[in-house]
């Protein structure tokens, strides 16, 4: 869907890090806080932003299991979620949950990052940060 | 009651959005005429043909002639809405039209009353018609309804939401609903009380798409999930149809055909960081928390004064959360509040209810994105609604676009 996912000047660092199995977020070192979604400059203090590697530990803010056809590009069932990284409590990553069943899930449970190719993503085999129960 | 000045000085709570500083237009304008097309599934009708029929009916309902109309409001961002040339060509009139695209449906079905009040006060128009039409049922059948276009055009959604299948809108609000259930103990049976109440209203409404299909709570609970915890019944229909209403000065409206319906209060609010609702400070609330207080202050009323409401029910949970955010109960109490038939048309406020979406809403009447919600409230305040709330005098519409919300408080006027 995004031809330039890896080379995009603002968003590319997230995807390039993921190919090396690192979860990175855009960060303001002046404020020592996440800037998400990423921007070249911090919206609070206007300092240039950088990228920071996170532990990959997160909590499950909420989730939904898609069970009927709603997105032609995404064969159901799949579980999509909002997760909160432990280093950035005001930030939510949109993601998918893997290696679990909906019955195992509860909000605020601990999660850990892992890296998988997503259906229909360019370039073929491009890894994405996803999460599983910790 | 807080004055607008007091409200402006008050520190903003919560901190994840803000009210829009709308000028006080209380009592200045009225809705004098209403018109709708039939609401249907895929019909092959065009938006312009439907809008013109609704406009024609609204003008006639007001007791006016097309030549009396000198203002036209429509929505932007929805395909093929009316233009002044369309209006003049159809009605064979040559009069100039004040034209404004901050009208139509969604949040603008409320804020159009503020925009029109200012235009009328400035002498730019006398009789303004606000119109909205949608042909999405036809588009869907023809494969022209592209859910992902909006998301793919937003670069951050395209990079960080789309790849994970976190779209379209049912997935957003299913996720938000899950969090509301977790934080506040809201149950699926409580969520189901909304589609069941709205279906009962549609069953008593001759114009509702779902007028012949009943839905019990037991039926609801046996339906499969679409995107858990939502079932298809929690989600708006897609339909073809149009609505329109005529706005004029309140004093002028007293001399037209029907009892006027006066705009007493208008509010609007927006989240910070729009349009990225994944990052909204509290996903168990809506920007209605920033909009409703402004409208209440302008109208000098509170939620307990309202006789009937129409809430933007794109999903059951967005209606439930807005009922909380309108102040009918505390945050998190909406699940128990909506039980016990409290939203039904025959449980008036005197009996602890608040009749809601008495036409059936998006879940069961039609998906006209809110203009039919306002039209239904006008019928309620005239006393001519199919599911009439006894002695309805004061009503509110709650509009919504995910990152924005609006509120319109309407009062039954005197002749
Ligand atoms: Zn900063």
Task: Outline the fold blueprint.
The complex is a heterodimer of chains A (134) and B (415).
Chain A: H1 12-19, E1 24-28, E2 33-34, E3 50-53, E4 57-66, E5 78-85, E6 93-96, E7 110-117, E8 127-133
Antiparallel strand pairs in A: 1-2, 1-3, 4-5, 4-7, 5-6, 7-8
Chain B: H1 4-9, E1 17-19, E2 29-36, H2 47-62, E3 71-73, H3 84-91, E4 98-100, H4 108-121, E5 127-135, H5 136-141, H6 149-153, H7 155-160, H8 169-184, H9 188-203, H10 217-222, E6 225-227, E7 230-231, E8 240-249, H11 250-253, E9 261-271, H12 288-299, E10 308-311, H13 316-325, H14 334-337, H15 361-364, H16 371-382, E11 394-400, E12 404-412
Parallel strand pairs in B: 3-4, 3-5, 10-11
Antiparallel strand pairs in B: 1-9, 2-8, 2-9, 5-8, 6-7, 9-12, 11-12
Helix pairs in contact in B: 9-13
Zinc ion binds at residues 28, 30-31, 42, 44-45, 47 of chain A.
Task: Give a structural overview.
The complex is a heterodimer of chains A (134) and B (415). With 134 residues, chain A is mainly beta. Chain A has one domain (5-133). Chain A is built from 1 helix and 8 strands, in the order H-E-E-E-E-E-E-E-E. In chain A, the strands form 2 sheets. A 5-stranded antiparallel β-sheet of chain A has the order 6-5-4-7-8, covered by helices on one side. In chain A, strands 2-1-3 form a 3-stranded antiparallel β-sheet. Chain A is globular, with a radius of gyration of 15 Å. Chain B is of the alpha+beta class and 415 residues long. Chain B folds into 2 domains: 1-21 and 155-236 and 267-408, Peroxisomal Thiolase, Chain A, domain 1; 29-140 and 239-247, Peroxisomal Thiolase, Chain A, domain 1 (3-Layer(aba) Sandwich), CATH 3.40.47.10. Chain B is 35% helix and 17% strand. Chain B has helices at residues 4-9, 47-62, 84-91, 108-121, 136-141, 149-153, 155-160, 169-184, 188-203, 217-222, 250-253, 288-299, 316-325, 334-337, 361-364, 371-382, and strands at 17-19, 29-36, 71-73, 98-100, 127-135, 225-227, 230-231, 240-249, 261-271, 308-311, 394-400, 404-412. In chain B, the strands form 2 sheets. In chain B, strands 1, 2, 3, 4, 5, 8, 9, 10, 11 and 12 form a 10-stranded mixed β-sheet that branches. A two-stranded antiparallel ribbon of chain B has the order 6-7. The model of chain B has no long low-confidence stretch (mean pLDDT 94). The interface between A and B is large, with 41 and 37 residues. Zinc ion is lined by residues 28, 30-31, 42, 44-45, 47 of chain A.
């Amino acid at each position: 869907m995004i031809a330039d996912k890896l080379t995009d000047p603002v968003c590319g660092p997230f995807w390039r890090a993921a190919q090396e199995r690192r979860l990175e977020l855009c960060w303001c070192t002046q404020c020592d806080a996440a800037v998400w979604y990423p921007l070249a400059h911090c919206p609070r203090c206007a300092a240039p932003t950088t990228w920071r590697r996170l532990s990959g530990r997160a909590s499950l803010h909420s989730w939904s299991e898609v069970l009927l056809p709603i997105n032609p590009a995404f064969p159901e069932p799949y579980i999509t979620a909002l997760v909160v990284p432990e280093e950035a409590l005001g930030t939510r990553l949109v993601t998918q949950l893997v290696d679990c069943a909906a019955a195992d899930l509860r909000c605020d449970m601990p999660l850990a990052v892992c890296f998988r190719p997503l259906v229909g993503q360019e370039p073929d085999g491009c890894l994405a940060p996803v999460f599983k129960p910790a | 009651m807080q004055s607008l000045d007091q409200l402006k000085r008050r520190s903003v709570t919560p901190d994840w959005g803000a009210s829009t500083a709308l000028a006080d237009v209380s009592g200045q304008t009225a809705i004098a005429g209403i018109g709708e097309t039939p609401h249907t599934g895929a019909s092959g009708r065009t938006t312009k043909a439907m809008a013109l029929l609704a406009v024609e009916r609204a003008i006639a309902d007001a007791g006016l002639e097309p030549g009396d109309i000198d203002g036209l409001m429509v929505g932007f961002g929805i395909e093929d809405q009316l233009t002044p040339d369309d209006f003049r060509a159809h009605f064979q009139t040559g009069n100039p039209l004040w034209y404004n695209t901050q009208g139509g449906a969604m949040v603008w079905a409320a804020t159009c009353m503020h925009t029109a009040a200012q235009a009328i006060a400035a002498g730019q128009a006398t009789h303004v018609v606000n119109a909205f039409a949608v042909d999405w049922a036809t588009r869907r059948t023809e494969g022209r309804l592209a859910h992902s276009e909006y998301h793919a055009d937003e670069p951050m959604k395209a990079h960080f939401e789309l790849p994970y299948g976190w779209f379209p809108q049912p997935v957003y609000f299913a996720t938000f609903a899950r969090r509301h259930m977790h934080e506040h103990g809201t149950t699926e049976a409580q969520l189901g009380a909304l589609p069941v109440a709205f279906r009962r209203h549609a069953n008593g409404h001759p114009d509702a798409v779902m007028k012949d299909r009943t839905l019990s709570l037991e039926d609801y609970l046996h339906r499969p999930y679409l995107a858990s915890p939502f079932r298809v019944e929690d989600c708006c229909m897609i339909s073809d149809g149009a609505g329109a209403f005529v706005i004029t000065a309140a004093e002028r409206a007293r001399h037209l055909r029907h009892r006027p319906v006066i705009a007493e209060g208008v509010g609007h609010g927006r989240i910070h960081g729009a349009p990225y609702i994944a990052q909204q400070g509290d996903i168990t609330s809506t920007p209605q928390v920033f909009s409703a207080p402004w409208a209440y202050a302008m109208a000098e009323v509170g939620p307990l004064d309202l006789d009937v409401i129409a809430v933007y029910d794109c999903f059951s949970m967005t209606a439930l959360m807005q009922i909380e955010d309108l102040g009918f109960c505390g945050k998190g109490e909406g699940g128990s509040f909506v039980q016990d038939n409290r939203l039904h048309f025959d449980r008036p406020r005197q009996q602890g209810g608040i009749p809601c979406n008495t036409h059936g809403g998006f879940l069961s009447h039609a998906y006209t994105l809110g203009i039919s919600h306002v039209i239904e409230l006008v019928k309620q305040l005239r006393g001519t609604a199919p599911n009439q709330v006894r002695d309805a005098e004061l009503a509110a519409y709650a509009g919504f676009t995910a990152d924005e919300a609006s509120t319109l408080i309407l009062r039954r006027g005197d002749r």
